[in-house]
Amino acid sequence: MTHFADRLAARVEATESVLCVGLDPRLPFPSDCHRGLRDDRSGLARAMERYCLGLIEAVEPFAAAVKPQVAFFEALGGYGLTALERVSAAAAERGLPVIADAKRGDIASTAAAYAAAWLEPRPGGEPPLADALTVNPYLGADSLEPFTAACREHGRGLYVLVRTSNPGSADVQGLETPDGPVWQSVAALVAAADTAPVAACGLSAIGAVVGLTQPAALATIRRLLPRAPLLLPGLGVQGGDPGAARAAYASHPAGALVVAARSVIEVWRGDPGDWRSAVAAAAQEHRRTTWNVASHAPA
Amino acid sequence: MTHFADRLAARVEATESVLCVGLDPRLPFPSDCHRGLRDDRSGLARAMERYCLGLIEAVEPFAAAVKPQVAFFEALGGYGLTALERVSAAAAERGLPVIADAKRGDIASTAAAYAAAWLEPRPGGEPPLADALTVNPYLGADSLEPFTAACREHGRGLYVLVRTSNPGSADVQGLETPDGPVWQSVAALVAAADTAPVAACGLSAIGAVVGLTQPAALATIRRLLPRAPLLLPGLGVQGGDPGAARAAYASHPAGALVVAARSVIEVWRGDPGDWRSAVAAAAQEHRRTTWNVASHAPA
Fold this sequence. Notes:
The structure is a homodimer. By secondary structure, chain A is an alpha/beta fold. The first copy, chain A, has a single domain (4-296), classed as Aldolase class I (TIM Barrel). Chain A has helices spanning 4-15, 41-59, 70-74, 77-93, 108-119, 141-154, 169-173, 182-193, 215-224, 262-265, 275-296; strands spanning 19-23, 65-68, 99-104, 132-135, 157-163, 176-177, 180-181, 206-210, 230-232, 256-260. In chain A, the strands form two sheets. Chain A has an eight-stranded parallel β-sheet, with helices on both faces. In chain A, helix 9 (215-224) links the parallel strand 8 (206-210) and strand 9 (230-232). The longest helix of chain A has 22 residues, at 275-296. The first copy, chain A, is globular, with a radius of gyration of 18 Å. At the A-B interface, helix 2, helix 3, helix 4, helix 5 and helix 6 of A face helix 2, helix 3, helix 4, helix 5 and helix 6 of B.
């Protein structure tokens, strides 16, 4: 079994890309995705699946990874989660790492079930649903342990929310303690949870989510977590600047993936041309600007 | 549309119960649940559904609510979530409020999709999947807003994680700030988010999760959130004492539900008799001890 970070690093090198395309399938989908389907949950889930399969096909040459946002699938219940399983399998077939953006977190005995859901081989002999998972640290170290165990045993990765990209991230993450803001203590928690072996590429399997809208936090977190793969949302609509990622690059360009969602997958809206071509062009352009930062960062 | 807290209060009064039975369907299930089914995800999801339907039937006379733990269903993918939809519908048919324990949380545009998944009428005209949802506050006030909006519009309830029952809850929730521990600032966040109308019974729709293992925090949180419905996990296996709930009761016994999961639903293990009877007896006994506390608390 290969280490998550080595699979990611190989993909980053092969595609010369640190772009992670967020699959946030918001209505309206392109009209051809709905053809012949009803507007009930079953029909919408099929349309969502077609849309995401089209997105994967369009971005594949330019993306280091895809990040399905689980909420949109979950909103369609069992049909939606089945669609996500198919989308994830399609990405895996094309060699695209899947980072499930689920932000799960619970007490250890329940976290074990979430780890089984996303990071472990599934009943019936199917491979894990995702290569990596985002998790929420509010319940503390013991709540992370089942996830890090799954990473060790099954070559998976974890991205722990440390400092998120939204304005409200200040409310809890930004509270000051005698040892600095809460997010800094959470970064220390991530460092302590990182007991898995380091990959050949020099990165660990236990990473962090840091908003690109938080450049100062980003530099501190890179210092506190020198080997952690980082996931940087907040480009585009949320106002993050690709150049802000510079501080995130340490040993390897795979050390930080820059997430773009709406600015890639919704770029066809209001454009009369082919939606797949518009998405592919946006992904290519985002790859260029983000790779430019990653490949020129000091080692 | 009735207010969530009024529906809950009516149920608490009718059943003389503040017991919330946690549906955490961990393997092994009773053997008759597996009859004729395979050990793949589809078969296991059917067995899980049978188990939960049996649990609901057994505890219905004694429970104020049921709390399906979403992780166990999610571990079986689309099949599992479909099973949860059926379990939830069965509980609703029997008049049992469903508190979906999903601990969701994300930036506002994504939280809106989670709110749609759990608290809003679903595409195709189906009612909301749950009466109330547990959510994680780590992303701050703006991440709670889509959930509170759904509560206002659709008569639903919310239980925000404030101080959880596990030992690791100290790691982040217990960090000291100049204004007290982090969980105290989160309680203030919950108070600020509570802009929905108060129910006729005097309770609000926006509640909090507080571990029964945290009696000091519980008293403080009740003072900070006088109208909030509370959800108190940690009884039984986790070591919480039913008497610790005393501080939680304010205007109405529905002001705090005490959660029991393993100590009710797994009580049949190692017992050769009928599992449904054993579960019913355990629920009845838990109802007695918890109602004794709720009904004797000072108003």
